[in-house]
Design brief:
This protein has one domain: L-fuculose-1-phosphate Aldolase (3-Layer(aba) Sandwich). 37% of the residues lie in helices and 15% in strands. It has an eight-stranded mixed β-sheet, with helices on both faces. α3 packs across α5. The chain is globular and about 50 Å long. The C terminus is likely disordered.
Length: 215
C-alpha cells in the first residue's frame, strides 16, 4: 500500500472502531507504521468528519507533518513502534467493558482460553498515568511485555498487531473478553485456567489460521 491508501485505511478503520462498539465519540486513536515513523489519526476531529489528508505523519523523533496536531497519545504509538518490531499497527480505544475493568485497576485473567489471542496468560492493566504523557507510554510498554494487548487504569485499552485490520479485530476480541469477564463477575469470581493449560493453548495458537484449532 502507498501512503494515500494507508491514510484512507486509517479513516475507514477509525469509523469502524466506533461502529463495532470498540470506541465512542472522538476518543481513541489508530496508527500504522510507515517509513521512518508512523501515520496516526489527528487530535479532536470526529471520525465521521475525518479525511485522509487529516491524518498526521509522525517521525520516531516526535516531529510531525500535517495540518493538524497528532493524537495526544502519539508518544504511546511512537514508543511501541520503537520497542516492538512486531507492531505494524496500533489501536487505542476507550471500549466500554475494557475501560470499566480498567477503572477498577483490574486486568483480565485467564478465565477463558481466548485470553491467548493477546499472546499471553492474561491481559495486564498498566498503572494509571495522565493521558498524553511519557509516563503512560512507559507503563504501557511494561504491561505489553510479551503481550499484544493491555488495559490502562482509568483510561482504556491498547492493542498492536501486524496490520490495521488485525489490530482492530484484536481490539474487538479484547472488548468481548472484557464483557464476558465483567458479566461473570456479577455472579462471582470466575475460576482461572492454570498457567500450564494456558501454555498448551498458546502453543496451539501458534498454528492458528494454518490448520490450527477451531474456536
Amino acid at each position: 500500500m502507498n501512503e494515500r491508501d494507508i491514510r484512507r485505511d486509517l479513516v475507514t478503520h477509525a469509523r469502524r472502531m466506533n461502529d463495532l462498539g470498540v470506541n465512542q465519540g472522538r476518543s481513541g486513536n489508530l496508527s500504522v507504521r510507515w517509513e521512518d515513523g508512523f501515520l496516526v489519526t489527528p487530535s479532536a476531529i470526529a471520525y465521521d468528519d475525518m479525511r485522509p489528508d487529516d491524518v498526521v505523519r509522525v517521525r520516531l523523533d516526535g516531529a510531525s507533518e500535517g495540518d493538524h496536531a497528532p493524537s495526544t497519545e502519539w508518544r504511546l504509538h511512537r514508543d511501541i513502534y520503537r520497542h516492538r518490531a512486531d507492531a505494524a499497527a496500533i489501536v487505542h480505544a476507550h471500549a466500554m467493558f475494557a475501560t470499566t475493568l480498567a477503572c477498577l485497576d483490574r486486568g483480565i485473567p485467564a478465565f477463558h482460553y481466548m485470553i491467548a489471542v493477546a499472546s499471553g496468560t492474561d491481559i495486564r492493566c498498566a498503572p494509571y498515568a495522565t493521558f498524553g504523557t511519557q509516563e503512560i507510554s512507559d507503563r504501557a510498554l511494561t504491561a505489553l511485555d510479551g503481550r499484544r494487548a493491555c488495559l490502562h487504569a482509568h483510561h482504556g485499552m491498547t492493542v498492536l498487531s501486524d496490520s490495521l485490520p488485525a489490530a482492530l479485530a484484536l481490539a474487538v476480541e479484547v472488548e468481548t473478553l472484557a464483557a464476558m469477564y465483567w458479566r461473570a463477575l456479577q455472579i462471582g469470581e470466575p475460576a482461572v485456567l492454570s498457567d500450564e493449560e494456558m501454555k498448551i493453548v498458546l502453543e496451539k495458537f501458534t498454528n492458528y489460521g494454518q490448520g490450527g484449532p477451531a474456536r
